[in-house]
Amino acid sequence: MSRHSFPGKAGATEVTIGWDRPLETFFVQVLAPHAVLADEETIILWEGTAIGELPTAASAIRIAQPYADLPETLGATLETDRLRTVATHDGPAQTAAKRFIDR
């Protein structure tokens, strides 16, 4: 799994984007200030939670762009993260857990 965080904009406090090898998807999380608790944050957007949901770095970047200024090299970085995991296989726990996930 890779994880890259950036300062948020447009009401977001932080944007995290990365690659989740077991789910074979890129993901995006956007945090914003909690409406009630001033020192807390809440997730306002979380994409890439299903197997293969965001198959390309570009699809994740498109979702994240309105919420953060992202570096131009992020696509290459994310694809490199994905390629580094190509030869990695699920362990027993991941294999067992995937039986409970709807495909």
Kindly provide the radius of gyration, computed on alpha-carbon positions and rounded to a whole number of angstroms.
Answer: 15 Å
General shape: globular
Low-pLDDT residue intervals, each spanning 5 or more residues? none
Helix-strand category: alpha+beta
Oligomer: single chain
The ordered H/E elements are: EEEEHHH
Helical percentage: 10-25%
- Percent range for β-strand residues: 25-35%
Instruction: Strand order, main sheet: write it out.
Output: 1-2-3-4
Please tally the β strands and state the result. 4
What is the total number of structural domains? 1
The span between the termini is 20 Å
Largest sheet, in brief, is: 4 strands, antiparallel
* Average pLDDT over all residues: 90
List keywords for this structure.
single chain; 4 strands; alpha+beta; globular
What does this structure look like?
This protein has 103 residues and is an alpha+beta fold. It is 24% helix and 26% strand. The protein has one domain (4-74, 83-98). It contains three helices and four strands. Strands 1-2-3-4 form a four-stranded antiparallel β-sheet. The longest helix has 10 residues, at 74-83. The model has no long low-confidence stretch (mean pLDDT 90).
